[in-house]
Design goal:
It comes from Rhinolophus ferrumequinum (Greater horseshoe bat). Pfam families: SH2, SOCS_box. The protein is α+β, with helices and mostly antiparallel strands. It is about 35% helix and about 10% strand. The protein has two domains: about 110 residues, SHC Adaptor Protein (2-Layer Sandwich), CATH 3.30.505; about 40 residues. The radius of gyration is 40 Å and the shape is globular.
Length: about 210
């Protein structure tokens, strides 16, 4: 009986040892199926930017508007996207005839002229048709926006007076340029003996406003 129990105990020990020697099944022995990538949600394409400006009809029209924009940036009285209300508030306390140029909020119109009239501030659309500028309701048209402004500044009725500049104190070089243009005329600037730097500066804004 004792011998039988001893044999049983030896068999149990051998079985346990054999069990310890058996390698445990590895989790990597049967590779899992690769996870299927989730499809990315479709991102809607951004809508094209909207603008109230109409498209240019020709390259010449594009050049003329680009030139007008460059002159406006140099003039000092272009107020960009200023609203009608904002323009009228700035002009309300100014003398009659004071004016500024700003972007128009109307479709198919690039710029607007806001001016202090005797009855109060008002705004007039500046139309650009067939390559020429004219005020809303007027038949007089001009190749250049600033020729239009000079015309109404010098007109007998003097619809326009002094522009409302964003900087009240103008640099001395701007005042000198304006005086030279008024003295010799825009058409004679090329005859003045100037170095290239001064010549470029004079031609960058050859107007008396």
């Amino acid at each position: 009986m004792v011998a039988h129990n001893q044999v049983a105990a030896d068999n149990a020990i051998s079985t346990a040892a054999e069990t310890r020697r058996r390698p445990e099944p590895s989790s990597s022995s049967s590779p899992a199926a690769p996870a299927r990538p989730r499809p990315c949600p479709a991102v809607p394409a951004p809508a094209p930017g909207e603008t109230h400006f109409r498209t240019f009809r020709s390259h010449a029209e594009y050049r003329r508007i680009t030139r007008a924009s460059a002159l406006l940036d140099a003039c000092g009285f272009y107020w960009g996207p200023l609203s009608v209300h904002g323009a009228h508030e700035r002009l309300r306390a100014e003398p009659v005839g004071t004016f500024l140029v700003r972007d128009s909020r109307q479709r198919n119109c690039f710029f607007a002229l806001s001016v202090k009239m005797a009855s109060g501030p008002t705004s007039i659309r500046v139309h650009f048709q067939a390559g020429r500028f004219h005020l809303d309701g007027s038949r007089e048209s001009f190749d250049c926006l600033f020729e239009l402004l000079e015309h109404y500044v010098a007109a007998p009725r003097r619809m326009l007076g002094a522009p409302l500049r964003q900087r009240r104190v103008r640099p001395l070089q701007e005042l000198c340029r304006q005086r030279i243009v008024a003295t010799v005329g825009r058409e004679n600037l090329a005859r003045i003996p100037l170095n290239p730097v001064l010549r470029d500066y004079m031609s960058s804004f050859p107007f008396q406003i």
